[in-house]
Amino acid sequence: VSLLARFADPDEGRVLIGDADLGSLRESDLYQRLSFAFQDTGMRHTSIRDALTGGRTVAEERMTLAATEAAIHDDIVALPRGYDTLLGGDIDLSGGQRQRLALARALLRDADVLVLDETLSHLDPVTRADVLRTLRSHAQDCTVLLMAHQLHLVQDADRILVLDQGRLVGDGIHADLLDHCAAYRALWVAQDAVGDGEES
């Protein structure tokens, strides 16, 4: 994720999006191609509207659609100042609400690649199921990269990459990884035994 966001550049090799080398893209071009939602949203001391749009002019319908798809619109309109609520001033959102707001912001950018870094970890099971349906729909038109420690979040992915101590140890779909990747199978069995570790 750090390499994709250009927080760091690779010591060796290249990172490509299609045929484009990320190292050769201007920052403005990079963020037209990729949209990010991180676990730490970093959204403070700004209105919900500006947090979603990044200060850009965006049609109200597009903004509310993205918020609805991220299952945060109802929470926003229930606030006394709605989309003009000041984060860190008027209200302090819960972890799950902040994650859904970050997801709405990422969806609103309508990029080729949507990168979600542990963005669903604080969502309750019902909301998470709604958001996953939204992501499946968006995956028809863009690439969705979902980083997660909770394996049930990725079990329906077209391709799952299993990392262990920074090394790739598995690559495939859920059923094949259960059969052929010991690290994935051990994690699946462990999580199945204790539940998914969901948070409210």
N- to C-terminal distance: 26 Å
- Element-level helix/strand string: EEHEHHHHEHEEEHH
Mean pLDDT: 86
Q: Which regions are unreliable across 5 or more consecutive residues at pLDDT < 50?
A: none
What's the number of extended β-strand segments? 7
Principal-axis shape: globular
CA-atom Rg in angstroms: 18 Å
What is the percentage of strand-forming residues?
15-25%
Q: Name the quaternary structure.
A: single chain
For the largest beta-sheet, the strand count, sense and barrel status come to: 3 strands, parallel
By DSSP (H or I, 4+ residues per run), the number of helices equals: 8
Read across the widest sheet, the strand sequence of neighbours is 3-4-5
Helix content: 25-40%
By helix and strand content, what is the structural category? alpha/beta
